[in-house]
Design a protein that fits this description.
single chain; nine-stranded mixed beta sheet; 10 helices
């Protein structure tokens, strides 16, 4: 059976049937489809999208990537770009997707014996149905709107499409008390010229510890292509998770990502989002502090060039008391590219003794580059510490002149200044191979 390419309720039914899904999941898909069908696409008249025009994005003009059964590959058969990352990344284990297909998986026997699961979402539906059903759609779903989004239902249009039509996904399960500090990795290689829809579900039980890195890779340039992704993180009491979402998709991709974490009592999430690729990308990253004493660190790095456009929205949603959150998003833009950041710290009345910070800093390397920054506070409690701030500035001409006067080429001088600008985010990344990889991407983009 081949999937039709027209977005419709019938297509949702086809996808679910092809993947042999349980009835409860089909019902969730259909509910998401109904939400998608009745809502308009966000426009520049929508407050949270006022700086990002998506009218040219071909959501409904591309074939949906078709899930099929394919044999697993050897390492040597993986795309060269993925092989290079595996060689550099120093991972405990990893899985590789090419399009919607899981083509390679490697997990240490030691972690398997402890009950750690890293597999495709649909395999997990068979092997761990209770864990999946108890958490899937718990954090990212069409009806769960908070903060400034609550009166603007069109913000759910694109995530609803992702929930209705995802063809592949990743499931990471870390049992209670299990700990590991060496990263597990997921590489998703997308060929383009299609609508790709994926989902990630991470469940970290009480007092567990995990490190997870997910990367999106593609050819340098592709025909118009759309990638929709969603990541759900459910952290039990005392759980500690370090998570990274890294996007280096090629020119021609439109990348839309929504991520939401639920943090239990004394849970800790260290999150990193890196957006360096795609023609247009938007990442919505949200942490909900549901348990007292929870801790959320949200870091962001981005660098745009040419006509790239990158848009970030962050939400620190404090529900419980004595919780801490810190957002630090920093980026640089050159040529005619544009960056957008909007962030909200939202405190519910019961979130007393909250400690929350939000910072966005932007560096402009060209006179035609642009950055828009909109930090916001919505405070419902009275015994808290909250602050926010943003800045946008061009490269200091005197600093660049000084470096060039010492014999450095212009692009090398800019590399030094950009890395200095991003240093306080980079130094918070304790995974040395990952930090080196990001620095290498920055160096290449400065040269362009």
């Amino acid at each position: 059976m081949e999937l039709t390419s027209t977005l419709s309720r019938d297509l949702v039914l086809e996808v679910s049937k092809k993947l042999n899904e349980p009835q409860w999941l089909l019902e969730q898909r259909l509910a998401a489809w109904e939400t998608f069908a009745k809502l308009p696409y966000p426009t520049t008249r929508t407050e949270e999208w006022k700086y990002t025009d998506i009218t040219e994005v071909p959501f409904e003009g591309l074939p949906l990537e078709e899930p099929t059964d394919v044999p697993l590959r050897t390492r040597e058969e993986l795309p060269e770009a993925v092989q290079a990352r595996i060689a550099q990344a120093d991972l405990a284990g990893f899985v590789v997707f090419v399009g919607p297909q899981l083509v390679y998986a490697e997990l240490p026997e030691e972690l398997t014996r402890q009950g750690v699961v890293l597999t495709s979402l649909h395999e997990a539906l068979k092997s761990h149905p209770k864990q999946v059903q108890g958490a899937l759609f718990k954090t990212v779903n069409a009806s769960d709107l908070v903060g400034s989004q609550k009166n603007r239902p069109e913000n759910s249009k694109i995530p609803a499409l992702g929930s209705a039509l995802f063809t592949h996904g990743v499931f990471l399960y870390v049992p209670q008390g299990v700990e590991f500090s060496k990263p597990l990795g997921v590489f998703k290689y997308l060929g383009g010229n299609a609508l790709s829809v994926g989902r990630t579900l991470i469940v970290s039980e009480a007092n567990s510890q995990a490190v997870y890195i997910e990367e999106y890779i593609s050819p340098t340039k592709v025909p118009a292509s759309v990638n929709l992704s969603a990541t759900e993180l459910v952290l039990g009491s005392g759980a500690r998770v370090r998570h990274a979402h890294i996007q280096t998709l090629g020119e021609g991709f439109y990348h839309f990502h929504r991520q939401r974490a639920h943090l239990g009592r004394d849970a800790t999430l260290n999150d990193l989002v890196v957006n360096m690729g795609a023609t247009i990308s938007r990442a919505e990253v949200q942490s909900q502090m549901l348990g007292a004493g929870s801790y959320s660190e949200m870091l962001g790095l981005y660098f745009t060039a040419g006509n790239q456009h990158v848009d970030h929205y962050t939400l620190q949603h404090h529900v419980a008391d004595h919780a801490y959150s810190d957002v630090l998003y920093k980026g640089a833009a050159k040529d005619r590219s544009r960056t957008v950041y909007a962030g909200l710290i939202k405190l519910e009345p019961g979130a007393q003794k909250t400690d929350a910070y939000q910072t966005n800093r932007n560096l402009l390397l060209s006179p035609d580059a642009r950055a828009d920054s909109v930090p916001q506070l919505e405070i419902g409690a009275n015994d808290v510490k909250c602050s926010h701030g943003s800045s946008t500035a061009p490269v200091d001409a005197m600093q660049l002149f000084y470096l060039m006067s010492r014999g450095l080429p212009r692009h090398v001088g800019q590399q030094i200044l950009v890395k200095a600008h991003l240093a306080d985010v980079l130094t918070r990344i304790p995974i040395e191979p990952l930090r080196q990889h990001i620095e290498g991407i920055i160096e290449e983009k400065v040269k362009l």
